[in-house]
Amino acid sequence: MEIKIHGRSLEITDDIQSYVDKKFNRLSRHLPQMLDATAEIKRTSARSGDDRFVVQLTLMVKGQVLRAQRRGSTVSEAVDTAVDVMDRQIRRYKGRRYRSKQERKSLRDLPDGLVQEPDEEPPPPGEMEDMPIKVVRRKRFPMVGMTVDDAIAEMELLNHNFYLFRSVETGSHSVVYRREDGDYGLIEPIEG
């Protein structure tokens, strides 16, 4: 598998390339079905020498995205800590995939047509008009069909508060999110 390495404010030398390749080979042993791997290495102008380099690793595995980002005083230190984080995420991913296969049976037993009413009213339209709206980043990713449990696992692996996915049960786009009480919520569209 080819590993794409990008450098920002930093030239990717042969030494850096071989070091990253060696570390990714360690990850690929744990996850042989890895489809795509990217490493982005940035040199920052941090005041602290401990945070001079930032490494972001991204792996695509069967439509799932695993990502880890860490800082370090050297490129190798940042790569090492990011690979350690990614290794833990791979272990969680593999464990959740195994458990989710067993838990899918319980989802089939849920009654159809459950709708949860909103907890509170949205803010009045007048309050929203004064806020400037600015899109600062755009992301595009394939919408892979998955169960609610898989979507929650993906959200947790990415360390996000919400996750948009296409439900295999309904075929529509849905959102899972982490509630303040630690539980999860699900937003499903109702065609009307």
Task: Classify the beta-strand content into a percent band.
Answer: 25-35%
Quick one: how many beta strands? 8
Helix/strand structural class: alpha/beta
Report the total helices.
4
Low-confidence stretches: 104-120
Order of helices and strands: EHEEEHHEHEEE
Helical amount among residues, as a percent range? 25-40%
Mean pLDDT: 77
Largest sheet entry: 4 strands, mixed
Distance between the termini: 46 Å
The radius of gyration is 20 Å
The coarse silhouette is globular
* Widest β-sheet, arrangement of strands: 1-2-3-4
How does this structure look, described?
The protein is of the alpha/beta class and 192 residues long. 34% of the residues lie in helices and 27% in strands. It is built from four helices and eight strands. The strands form two sheets. A four-stranded mixed β-sheet has the order 1-2-3-4. Helix 1 packs parallel to helix 2 and helix 2 runs antiparallel to helix 4. The longest helix has 33 residues. The chain is globular, with a radius of gyration of 20 Å. It starts with a strand and ends in a 5-residue tail after the last strand.
